[in-house]
Amino acid sequence: MKVVHEMCPNITRIYNIGKSHQGLKLYAVEISDHPGEHEVGEPEFHYIAGAHGNEVLGRELLLLLTQFLCQEYLAGNARIVRLVEETRIHIVPSLNPDGYEKAYEGGSELGGWSLGRWTHDGIDFNNNFPDLNTLLWEAEDRQNVPRKVPNHYIAIPEWFLSENATVSGAPWPAGPWGPVSTHRCSQRT
């Protein structure tokens, strides 16, 4: 990320979104024509990898994506220039750096498949999302719909909650094969 920022300082900004359980900084890189500035009406998105510390492919792909966007912007690729000028992109390559370090130290053959998958506290960032459908449907049945739903699972960085951010752990939590309850949907059809 540092090399990309040095190559493209006018369109990148590296910032810290917090610390891991073991005190490692969680870094994000922003790619935009005005890094550090919220532009009203400009779409924003976050790419996050490394929820499972032992799965390094996503981390490497996001690092390569930042490099690609920088190089293509400098080369004048019209699609990339337009993307950078009309979108604010936030990239977090490693959400679970503690798990990454643990898996790296253990090695792929000695550590087993799960070494580094979870956080230090045993939380799986990719799967520990509350079943909000059931929670809200039960509240609706009691005529007690909450205005806010507490997050008992992970500490969400403040920037996730700003500027109408949308959060998705993976494409499957909302599908029929995922952990989201669909009992209410079948009752209403």
From TrEMBL:
<protein>
    <submittedName>
        <fullName>Carboxypeptidase X, M14 family member 2</fullName>
    </submittedName>
</protein>
<comment type="similarity">
    <text>Belongs to the peptidase M14 family.</text>
</comment>
<dbReference type="GO" id="GO:0004181">
    <property type="term" value="F:metallocarboxypeptidase activity"/>
</dbReference>
<dbReference type="InterPro" id="IPR057246">
    <property type="entry name" value="CARBOXYPEPT_ZN_1"/>
</dbReference>
<keyword id="KW-0645">Protease</keyword>
<dbReference type="InterPro" id="IPR000834">
    <property type="entry name" value="Peptidase_M14"/>
</dbReference>
<feature type="domain" description="Peptidase M14">
    <location>
        <begin position="1"/>
        <end position="189"/>
    </location>
</feature>
<dbReference type="GO" id="GO:0008270">
    <property type="term" value="F:zinc ion binding"/>
</dbReference>
<dbReference type="GO" id="GO:0006508">
    <property type="term" value="P:proteolysis"/>
</dbReference>
<keyword id="KW-0378">Hydrolase</keyword>
<dbReference type="Pfam" id="PF00246">
    <property type="entry name" value="Peptidase_M14"/>
</dbReference>
<dbReference type="InterPro" id="IPR050753">
    <property type="entry name" value="Peptidase_M14_domain"/>
</dbReference>
<keyword id="KW-0121">Carboxypeptidase</keyword>
